[in-house]
Every structure is written in structure tokens, then in C-alpha cells.
Amino acid sequence: MLLISCSSDYLEEEKLVSPPINSYFKTEKGFNDLVNSNYTFTRSLFAGGSNFAPLVFFGTDLWTNGSDGTFIEFNAYNSGIQPANNVLWNLWAPFYQGIAACNTAISRAGEVEEMSVSEVNSKVAESYFLRAWYYHILVTHFGDIPLVTEEVTEVVTTATRTPESQVYDQIVEDLLFAEQNLPESQADHGRATKGAAQALLARIYLTLNQNDLAATYASKVITEHDYSLLDDYGRLWDVDNRVNSEVIWSIQFSQDERLNGNGNSYFLYFTPRYDLQPGMTRALENDRPWPRFVATRYYFDLLTANRDIDSRFAKSWKTAWIANNEATLPPNMQLGDTAFIYVPWDIPADIEADLETKYGVFDINDLYDGEIPTGSRELFPHMRKYKDPLRASINSGIGTKNVIEIRLAEMYLIAAEALMKQGREPEGVEFINTIRRRAAWPGEEVNMEITADQLDLDFILDERALELGAERLRWADLKRTGKLLERVRLYNTLGRNNVEEKHLLRPIPSNMIDRITNKEDFPQNPGY
Amino acid sequence: MQKSSWFSTLVGNIFNKNRTLKLSFLLLVLALFNLQANTYSQNKKVTLNVVNKSIEEVLKEIESQSEFKFFYKSDEIDLARKVTLKVDEMPIDRLLEIIFNDGTITFSTVKKQIVLKRIRKRPAIHLKEESEKLPPRELLQLAVSGTITDSQGVPIPGVSVLEKGTANGVAADFDGNYTITLSTPDAILVYSSIGFSTQEIAVGNSSVINVSMEEDTEALDEVVVVGYGTQKRKDITGSVASVSTEDIADIPMTSIGDGLVGRIPGLDIVSSGSGPGAGNQLQLRGQRSFTASNDPLIILDGSPYYGLINDINPYDIETVDVLKDASSTAIYGARGANGVIIITTKRGTIGAPRVILESFAGPTATYGTIPFADGEQYAEIGREAYRAIGDYPEGGTSEEYDEIIFDEIEIQAIRKGGKGLNYQDLLYEAGFRQKHQLTVMGGSENVKYNVSGNFFNQEGIIPGDEYNRYSLRTNLDFTFSPKITGGASILLNHSYNKKKTSAALFQAFQSSPLGKLYEDDGSPRFTATADGLVLNPLADYIWDSYRWDDKRWGGVLNVFAEAKILPELTYRLNLGSNFNLNTTKESAGFYSLARNLGTPTADIANSVDNLLLYESIITYNKTFNEKHQLTITGIHGTQSTRIETSGVGVSDLPYEPSRYHNIGSATLVNSVGSNLVETSLLSYAGRVFYGYDSKYLLTLSIRADGASQFSTDHKWGYFPSVAFAYRLSSEKFMKSTENWLNDLKIRLSYGVTGNQGILPYQTQGGANRSAYSWNEAPGFGYYPVELENNDLKWETTAVTNLGVDFNIINGRISGSVDAYKTNTYDLLMFRKLPITSGYDQVLQNIGRTKNDGLEISLNTVNIVGENFDWKTNLTYFSNRTKIDELYNGKVDDVGNRWFIGQPIEVFFDYKKIGIWQESERDEAASFGEEPGQIKVLDVDNDGAITDADRMVLGSTQPDFVGNMTHSFRVKNFDFSFQTYIRWGGMASIDAFEPFAKKRYNKLVFDYWTPTNPTNNYPRPNQLYEDGGLYGTTLTYRDNSLISLRQISLGYRFPQVLMERLPFSSLRLYISGENIAYWTKSELSKFNMQADLAGSVPDGGVSRVISTYPATRTLTLGINLQF
User: What is residue B648's three-state secondary structure?
Assistant: First the structure.
């Protein structure tokens, strides 16, 4: 004992439980692990209840608030949009941590010892791709933001805002590197590929109004790779079809809790309180109800206007439920019968009365009082793109379903928009029609086609609503096209009186500003 | 009325509940009465046939036939008197009556001694004259006798008289008389008794030694345990408070924390829950640290204890000494900043084996149910929530609309009418608590022992909640030679805490009272209503689907050896080890509240930690010229800890009844993990104490600690202290006050201590494992999460303490007052970083906090009499914590809720100023609100409620804590009660934030409606989640509490009776805990008490209501000594 205590080694500590960063990241395995970690933060958009969702669904022309959930201020554009709002920090913080993890990989790529330069470049190109993706979402919502591109190795307590244009320059530069170095395909589904980099470039160029490049890159993705549109729009959302030819890049979740982190919670938000209807109880295949986002009247009208030729409403919305609860069955209904249906359009009273003898019927007038959802906003058709019947149990809040972040159909719509903006409508309309033909009910393909003179910005926005509705792009689309204020005022009953120019940017989270020592160099966005 | 009948409910429950342990308690009591009857009849009998023998011979004959010894003064008894007797099997007492039939001699029995005395008034003062007439001592076989009195000449019964160096000893009788037969002529007698100073007297030629014992009432000679040694209380220079378990021994305690509540000025104890096995949080002189631990260091029998304080059996404890100021704690250096609690367990004493049995048992009951809404009220709140959004007609009820807003189960209940279900009534039962402890102690000069076994059991007020603790303690002391001594302390404990539900109470509070728990055919329902999240609160019991099992095994093993190298120089070696094993298992089935129809899961978590301690202590202690007292202490020590944890979680168990016993059978592994944490500490310390005539006292100490947690250049910290005390009452000029002011001492100290209470490896930087998947294939990774930090060092606390100790009118009034100022700097604090660096925070030594406070402790002896005593103990303390500086200097950290000038834990929110009324409709609209919603203060008056309008509303810190304990003795009855006040402070109680919408149940509130324009609670509103806009502002309550914490009535059976029983003492008592309480806010009306449940809302820290309603306990106990 005395001997031990006299030795100076007695106070040395050895950490056995995790590898020493400096040596580990130089190995092939270590560097691969470092790049893997870059992906983890992409999931933050989908975790828990105070995530990204209110920023991209609320406050648009397509969605308004349902009965449950908070952060309605982003729909109302009212004074609740404060720098201290959790939603903002929950986007900002994990994204900058993700960027830092990417930066670490990028800064340390030169030190990797067991790999050739081209192997390293191919690997680190994933980090460049992800860094660009993180920055793009941040810059969309916050405007000028701190641009950090190197690993930080010592305490930094200052930060400054880099102009939006420079951030975009970095994003483009990163994506060009990624495009050059990423492989055509990856053994691991979910890793970035050359096609994914090009697709993201197309999105970025469109945002930057560099329409020729946007069209070029969208075309490259369409023509130079093995992606193809699925024949059946409805198959895109099937849980057994998570890997398919239309997916360019998807964010991965898992049924294995060890791999799944906090999971994907979006399955909750579009589910009505079907369980309160007679003959119904909660069931895994029907998802757990948490009525958070309800389509606006405008969106339902748009979705159902051409329901006879356009299959997309039918194929991405659930409108009928099968009775599954013996205890509450109404008279003359059996288990397995239709319990109730939602019909988001007008139906003649006599037909409705006839149907009501068999099951519950709610038509658009039951669902909306004019433009406003009726009742306590619990009743509406179920948008099924996030349906997740593979969760562990009916009341589990941990979703398992992959999220398609970029899919081929978007490239057609980008090409069409970019061409239209260059006055090349005849070329653009072909891209639109490809998408519309795929969406048609069998035999109705021709009826879905449009002509070049029909192609304008509003048409494209409506087409994107039909094709990409609920795929988290709407708020950015409206902002990019300069239509946010106009469309919110037209179609969003809650936000229409409050929305103003300042809302095109979100406030910088107060947690960011509170922590820096050079606050005077770090202005808040105007109006907050 | 519920409240008037609680007592009968309690008592009824003892007898009604078929619990084997309760039965065994009753049996024990019955057995005791049986035993008394037996011993009475078993009185020893003798057979004698003597003819004309002297009394002396007769007594010898009786001695030879029995185990009794006679004690008498030869001058009192005519030993030569001749008697003739023939008796057969006669009880001794009857025989003695015959022998001494003249009525001048009485006899009494003390254990196996029969004391014979002449009946007459005999002042002690005459004894000396009489002693001259004594016959030569040879005739008395070297017997010494005498009377023991106090300084006033009043005889003291029961004083132990021991022949030094032997096991030969007797106890004085009830008149203070003793006779001891010596084994050697040159004996030294040791006289000792509780409450008096021990005296040693050489027998020499005396055959009569009358002793005047010096009272200890001033407690000045009481020995106090200080770090690495002991000191007489009168010589203490720092701030040290002590509680002897004698003071609290009669209180039924769950843990030592319970027993100490309110008794040590400066020590704030808050329970961290109310269920069985719930612990306490101890905080000494406030909070000073943000990140490092704020827990005081606990030293258990010399070795640091990092286990749960609950696992220490409070009945093993002899004394608790709390070192408060830095001059006392600096000797613990790096671990001393939060104060030191030194726990010393009971040790053996010289004497024949003594057996002590202590038992108590009794029920616990709730004050009543927490008044959540009944069915009718719930329905009306629901309707109002829909009225608020225009979906229900104003005024009155409508069956048509009811059908829309209530589900079919609720509709059935509404149609049936009545109040619906009260789930709390279905759930609550009487809890139960019992303790049994057996102690054996005794010893000789060479070996002393104290061994005890204890069983403690507590059952909660909802079924299946249970806590058991088993402990075994062995303390041994050896004297190998006059120069070498040694000993061992071995404490082993096992605790077992279990629950059969995860959320029954939570569901009972929040499920709709219009629910239905069983179908009409009797089969159970899993949900209470049609809503999938409104569950049957009894589900875990009905399906027996949940288990939580927490088992701990702990051991504290210390050995020491002490060598007197020179008479004034002692070397002591301490070696210690303590270990804790913990395994926590949880299983939740498909039909469990935790899984809510999810696949069955099972989780196991294990931890093994151990600590190794080595210390060498060398002490030089000498008094020069009778006036200069010098003690020098040198310490060298090491301490290392190792914590290993592991765990696994699985789901989809194929066979649910296997619970967590076959987790390998599960389909899915959700988590697996293990970890290792090691630390080491190397220390050198020295202390010098110098006292001049107990008048001027000076203590200097310094400690150097090296800790592995810190970076190479900062491993070592140095912690000096100085303390000076001045006994004013010893001065000549104080002569005039001498008669009433017995002691007055002023203490002043300053010292520096450290805090190393952080996890290791934080200087190194580190990587986290990240998880991802590639279409279900594993995609794990690593990324950096911590920056390297080579500047990390100690957190340092400097304390200045000024204290006064006083003793007035011979101990009738005594006490102390301490005032202190604490400055903590180089705080180990996570500096929040701009996240753009990728790092959320870095641990740095930045910031300062301040604490200052006042502590008063006062003991008064109000009445002392032969038959009646009344004593009072008062404590008072207040502490203010202030943040002085944060990482950015004097700038608030809003994110962490840390504000300059405020305490560390504050409530930061909007301030509710009322409810918007109809007349304010326009103004409300300008804030985006409408009548019926909460109106909050627009602090900056900018016409909008923004982040800037939040403010500090209060803190958890109490204004002051006070305690008053009165103890009375009337003849053999003792009676005491304790009143406790914790005044001020705020709690956030989430039950007061009702769900805005109709879904979950609420406490009944005075909520706003158009016809009830109250300012109390907002209108229920179906459009909002949780509590709605600013709902959290409803939760804050003044936490001021006054409680009758403890009241007890005991009866000590008279010694006269004891003589006929095989016990030496017997006491029965009845005690009530938490019998009544009053809160400044309406908490007591709601049968709630705020305590620390550890729930932390976003960013801030709050103490919230525990999930248990307030409870009270009644206990019946017995203490027996053989």
C-alpha cells in the first residue's frame, strides 16, 4: 500500500471504455466509424415531439393545426415564434453537431493511414454531402448563419454570421466534391451516392435560381443513373417497399431499438382519432392517433378536384376504417365491416343518408366549416406516407420507418420548373407529364397530360403539392418561389392575418446567442 | 369524516391485515408477557439446614447454592449473630425476610447481586467517622464499599464500579451504595456512569471509598469526533454539531436522515419521495456547486461511504458528528467542501454480555385521497372545454352534445349518474413498518465486542411497494498489550426494494373517473375508457404484469491498529474497504401500464463498486506544565474507487411469466452496455492544536490532495485552515458572572476546502458511440463529444466562521450560535459553448457562488426534579446561496436558469397575474388571447408577451428551518414531541397545471367560465395541449411547512419490577410521525406534501409533488435489555 501510494503512477488515469480519438480515427475502421456518425444527426428532424415538423408543415398553404400538439405559433405566425422556442434549438443544435462531425472527418481525412487517397476521398465525400445537406436546411430557415468548415479543437466562445450567399457557395463546393468522389452506388442502403449529390445540387441550383444548372443536374439524375419511377404511386409508401428504384437518398430508421435512436415520430402526426368511432379501437395497422397536422380546405379541394383521373389522393390517403372492436359495434355492423369513411368532397344528401345506414360517413361539410376544420379537429382522412405498422406496439411512439429524403419524381418537377423559368415550357411540360401520367388511374394517362401553356409557377406549386405533399418541402418551396406570404394569406386561416416579411426567416435560437461572448457581432434576425 | 377516524383505521389495519410479519410482532409481545410471569415464579429457591451458624456463614451457604452474591456493609449488619434454620426449597427473598426478621435490614436485587442495607436515614457525611470503627480489612476479604453521590450529595444509582484490569465489577444500588470484593490488594477502581465523568481511584488502605461524581451536564468533557481524531467539546475551535443516537433512539426511523431532520443547524434534509425505500437529500449550508457534487462527505467508522445513506441501519449509530466550517473540514481537503458527516457506530464496553432487543411496528396511512375531480365534476370540466371552442352549448348540459364529446364508456357512466370511480380509494391500503434489532455487547479489558442484527421492513400505501433491509454489524476492539490496540468494524447490509406497478398512482390521478374497469361479465378492461391512453390504474395488478426489483448488498470493512510508541506519541493504521453491489431488474408485460399493449420487456442493470482506503495517522499529544496542551497530527493516505456497471434490455419475451429470469429467450435485444470508472486520491495532511489552559485554543491544518480526475499539471490541491477560540469565561474579569455564566467561548475560523466531485476522464476528451442503420444493418460510429481540457482543477471553497458557545446556570441553558460566509470559486462548471463549434459544453473552473448563513442551537433544561423533567432543544438556521459570477462574468445564463445574485435552483417563468375577464376582451386580444385564459405580466410593457417577460419567481431554498423538541419525564413516563418548520421556498407542483382539454382528470379547480369570472384557474379549452397557454405558471406554490413531525410516549418499567424479571430494563412506547402538518399554500388541504421527486422541467430545476399523497405513521415499540 505504501509502495503504491508513493508511486506517481497512482494518480494517472486510463480510460478504457472508448478509443482515443487521435489514433483511432487514423485507422480505416476508425475513419469509417467517424463518417458513419455524420449520418446520425439527420434523424434529429424526426425525433420526439418538439422536432422540425412544425417548421415545415405549419404555416404553409397545405397544412393547419389539428387537435393535439403544441407549437401552433408556427401556423399562426404569432408572438410565440420566439428565439427561446424549443423547435428552433432542436433543429439548430443537432445540425451543428452533425456539421462538426462532418468537419472532423473532413479535417482528419488527410491523416488516415490505412487507406489510399481515392478510398479516403470516396469515403469523406459522404461527409461533404451531409455537410451540404445540413447547411442547406439551416440556411433555408435562418438565412445568414455561422459557417464552420474545420474541426474545432479548442474552446471557441465566439461566432459570426456568414452571408447566405457564402454559405450557398460552400454548399455547392461541397456537393461538387461529393459528386466527383462518391460512388455510383453503395453496398449500404442509405449512404450518399453520386446521384444523391447531383440531386441535392439540382435542388440547390433551383433555390439559387441558377435554372440551367438545376435543369442540367435534374436531367443527369434522371438519365445517368438506374433510378426509375415506380409504376404505382401508392407503392412508394408501403412499408415492405422501403428500398425501391425511385429512392435517391433516404434517412434510415430501424426496428432494432439499438440502431434506431429516438426513432421517427412522424407516423403520429397525421393520424385522426379513429379509435373514438363506434366499432373501432386502436390497432397497430391503423397507427397511434395524434391529430397534429390537418390538411387545409384548400389542400383537400386540390387533392380531390381530379380524383377521377389522378390516383394520388386515393393512394396516399386512407379514408375508410374497418370495424375492429366488438365491444362498441353499432347495431347491424360486424367486425370486418367498414366502420366509417371520410369523403372530403361534397356528396348529395340522399346518397350520404343511404350510406349512413351502413356506416359512419363524414363528407367535406362534416369535416370543414367553410375553410376551418370542424369540432376539435380530430376527424380527417389519414395521410399515409409515414404509416408505420412495424413499430413494437400500438402505443409505442418510436417509429421505425425510413424517410425518403430525395426521390426521383422531385427531379422531374425541378427540371420542369427550371426549364419553365428559362422560358423553355415545351421542354418542361414533358417532365411534368411524365409525373402526371404515372399518377393517373390506369387508362387516364392522356387525361392527365397538360400543355406547355398551362405550365406556370402556380401550376408547378400545385403539382408539387399533389406529388410531394407532406414530404417536408412545402415551406421551402413557397419561400423559394416567393409565394409564402401570398399563399398563407390565401389558404391558411390561422396565419393569414399575421404573416409578414420577417417570417421568411426564423429567429436565431436564444441558446446560440446567449452562449457567445461577442453578442454585438451577432445580430438577431430582424423583427425578433 | 375521514380525518377523525384515521386512528381507528390505523389500529384496525394492524389487526385486520393478514401479514405474517405483523402477526409475528404480536406474538412477540404476547411472549414477553408470558416471560414476565415465568420469571416471577422462577425465583431462585434454596434449601438450608443450619444450626447455630453465624449470619455470615448462612449468607455464604446461600451464595454457594445460588449464583447470587451478597453485598453489605459489615458495620450495618451483625454478621456474627447466630441463627438456626431449616427450610426446604424456599425462595431467597422469603428466606431473607426470616433471617432479618427485625425489619431493620432491607434487601434489593440488582442482577445477581443482593444488597443488604440497614433501614435508616444515613447522611453520607457521617461515613468517614464510621469508617474508623471498621474492623481490619482482612476480615472483609479485601472488600471496598462506599456511597456514590453527585456533587450535591444526592446518591446516584447504577454507577458501574470496576476493578481496573479485570472483569470484576459491580453496580451501585439505588441509594448509591456499592461493595466490591477485590482480587488484588493494590487495585484501582473505575467509576463510570452516563452523564458523569469517569473517575479512577486507587484503593490503597481504604476499605470505604465514597465518591462524588462530577456531572457532565455541561457537556464540556463530551468527546467529539473530529477528522482523524477526537477532541473534547470544550476544546473545539471549529463548528461541529453532534447528535447522539441516545437523543433520537426512541424515534422510529427509516434512515438516519429521518432522525436528523431539524436537529443539526445547517443541515437541510428533504425527502426524495415517499414510497418505501425513498431516500433523503442532505445539504449542508446550502448549495455551492453547479456540476460537482453538493453532497456532504460521509465518513462511516473512519472510511468514506459512497453507498446509499438509506442502507445504513440508523440503530447501529452511536453518534453523528457534522463538521461544518472549513477549519473542521479542511482536514478532508478535496472532499470537504460540502461538509463532513462522521457516523460512528456503537462499540463494545467492558462488562458482562448485555443483550438488547429493540422492536417496533406500526401502520402508515394517507391523510386521505387527493381530491381529483369526481365523475360529475370531470364531465362538467369536459363540457366547459368544448364550450370554450364553441362546440358545446353555453349553460346547462345537452345529451346530444355529450354523445359527441364523451366516448361510449363515459356516456354509460354519465347516464348511470353518480360520482364515477375514485381510483385512489381502490388503490390505497394501509402501509406498514417494522424493525427488529438484537444487539449483544460486552467485553473484557482485552476484547470488547458489539454485535447486532437488524431487520427493517416497510410496505407502502399501494399494494406491492416494499422495502426490506437486513443488516449485521460487528465491532471489535482488542487490547494486545498496554501499547498496542486494534479493532475492526464490519457492517454488512442487504436491502431489497420492490414494486408491482410502474404507474398505478399516476393513472389513478389522471384516468377519467367516468371509466369502467371491468366489463359487465367481470372480465377486466385494460383501458378505463375508449381512449387508448386512459388506462385502467389497476392493470398492473389485475394482470400481474409488472415487476421492479432493486437489490443491494453493501459492506463496510475497516480494521485499525494503534501503537503507543511513546506515552505521547501514537501511530494508527486504518485499512478500509467498502463495496456495494446493486442489481435492478424490471419486467413489464403486454398488459402493463408501462408497455400499454406493447411486447413484453425485461431490463437488468448491475453495478459493482468498491473503495479501498489506507491511512497512516501519527499523533503527538502532550500537556506541558498542566497548562499548555499540544496535539500534532500527521496523516498520509490513499483512496481508490472502482465502479463497474453492466446492463441489458430486451423485448418480445415469448413467455411472459419468465419476467427477467430468462432474458435470453427474447426476440429482440434493445440495449446492452457496460462501463468502468476508476479514480484515485493520494493525500498528505497535518494539523496542530495548541491550547493554553483551555482558554486560548488554536488549530492549524493543511492538507494536500492529488486526484486522478485532474490534468497532470493540476492534480494537486492544497487546503489550509486556521481556527482560534477564546474562552472568555475563564478570564478573571468574568469572575462576577461566574455563578451563572459557566462557559462562554468565541470561535473564529477560516479555511479552504476543495471539491473533486466530478467524473473521471474529463480532461482527456472523448468519443461517443453513435447508432445508425443501413436498411436494418448496423451502422454504428464514433464522434468526438468532449474537448480535451488540460486546465481542469479543483473547485475551491473558502469559509469564514464566527461562533459562540455558551452555558448558563449549570447547563440549564446552553447552546451555540454560528455565522458564516462561504465563497466558492474556480467552480467546476459546464461552460455552455456556442453549438456551432460542435461542442455543447466544456467543463471548466469558472464562476463563483456565495453562501452565508446563521445557525443557532439552544438546549434548555426547564425543570429538573425527582419525578418530573422537562427539556427543550431548539435549532434554527438560514442560508442564502447567491450566484456571484458565471462563465461570462456577471452575465445570466438563461438557458440553464442561472442568474447572477440568485440561488442556483430557481423557478424562471412568466408571472400569472390573473385570468382575462370579459371586460378585458380587447386587451386580451392584443396579446392573442381571449377571456378565460391566463393573464401573465408583460414585464417590459411592450404590449407582447415575449421571452423577455419571464422572471425569477422564487427558489427552492427555504428562508429558514427551525425545529423544537420538547422532552418530558414524569416518573417512569417519558413524552416528547418535535415540531419542524421549513419556511419559505417554492415548489412547482405539476398537478396544479390541469390539462386544458378534456382527456385526463384534474384536481378540482375554481376555473373560469363566463358565469364564474374567477382569477384562479383558466377555462378548460379543447384547443390546447397540456396546461394550455402559460399553464406552467399555475404550478408554483409557497412550500412553507410546519409539521408535528414526531410525538412519542414511553413507559420505562420501574426497577423494582425489573428485579423480579430477567431484564435489566424494559421500555414500551407509542410514537406517531408526521401526525399533523400545515402548509402556507393549499397543499395540506389537498393532502399533498411537496418533496424532492427529481423531475426536471425543460432547462430549469424544480421540486415537484411526489407521486405519493402525504402519509402519517403510528408505531408501537419495545426496548428490552437483559
Answer: strand
State how far the alpha carbon of B1087 is from the alpha carbons of B337, B366, B851, in Å. 38, 8, 34
A520–B contact, CB cutoff 8 A: no
Is the pLDDT at B2 greater than 50, yes or no?
no
- The Cα angle at residue B36 between residues B35 and B42, in degrees rounded to 5: 85
Per-residue cell: A44: 434529429
Cα–Cα distance measured from residue B611 to residue B639, given in angstroms and rounded to the nearest whole number: 7
The answer to whether residues A292 and A65 touch, using CB atoms and an 8 Å cutoff, is yes
Whether residue B673 lies within 8 A of chain A, CB to CB, comes out as no
What's chain B's length in residues? 1122
Cell numbers that stand for A133 in this block: 445537406
- Residue A170: enclosing H or E segment and its boundaries? helix A164-181
Grid cell at residue B740:
451563572
Nearest-CA neighbor of A85 among A470, A512, A501, A477? A512
Q: Among A466-480, B228-242, B852-866, B1103-1117, name the most confident range.
A: A466-480
* Contact between B781 and A254 using a beta-carbon 8 Å cutoff: no
Tens-place pLDDT, residues B779-811: 999 999 988 888 888 889 999 999 999 999 878
Running DSSP on this structure, what letter comes out for residue A41? G
CB-nearest to A100 from B773, B777, B837 is B837
Per-residue exposure over B740-762, b if at least 16 CB sit within 10 Å of its own CB, e if not: eebbbbebbbbbbbbbbbbebbb
Determine phi and psi for A322, rounding to 5 degrees.
-100, 135
Say if residues B841 and B896 touch (Cβ distance below 8 Å). Answer: no
* CA within 13 Å, CB half, A201: 27
B-chain residues within 8 Å CB-CB of A514? 832, 893-895
Which residue of B782, B832, B1032 to mutate against A (max A Cβ within 10 Å)?
B782
A130 forms bridges with which residues in the sheet? none
CA distance B322 to B298: 9
Helix (H) or strand (E) holding B377, with range, is: helix B375-387
Neighbours of B205 (CB within 10 A): 6
In this predicted structure, the answer to whether residue B5 has a pLDDT above a threshold of 70 is: no
Measured distance CA(B86)–CA(B65) in Å, rounded: 15
Contact between A483 and A460 (Cβ < 8 Å): no
> What are the pLDDT digits (tens) for B428-487?
999 999 999 999 999 888 999 999 999 999 999 999 999 999 999 999 999 999 899 999
Claim: this prediction has a pTM higher than 0.90: no
Interface test with B, best of A18, A25, A369 (most B CBs within 10 A): A18
Letter for the amino acid at A197?
A: A
Encode pLDDT of A208-225 as tens digits: 999 999 999 999 999 999
Q: Mark which residues 16-55 of A lie under 8 Å from B by CB.
A: 16-21, 24-25, 30, 32-40, 43
Provide the residue type at B163 as one letter. Answer: E
Query: Residues of A with CB below 8 A from B773's CB?
Result: 190, 252-254, 256, 259-260
pLDDT for res B1104: 53
Is the model's pLDDT at B504 over the cut of 70?
Answer: yes
The answer to whether the CB of B375 falls within 8 A of the CB of B381 is: no
Per-residue pLDDT at B101:
67
d(CA A138, CA A519): 20
Q: How far A326 CA sits from the closest chain B CA (Å)?
A: 12
Q: Is B128 left (phi over 0), alpha (psi -120 to 50) or beta?
A: alpha
Name the nearest CA neighbour of B653 among B669, B673, B630.
B669
* Residue A247: DSSP 8-state: E
**DSSP code, position B1034:** G
Residues of B in contact with A390 (CB under 8 A): none
- Report whether pLDDT(A85) > 50: yes
Instruction: Determine contact, residues B770/B780, Cβ cutoff 8 Å.
Output: yes
What the block records as the C-alpha cell of B889 is 462574468
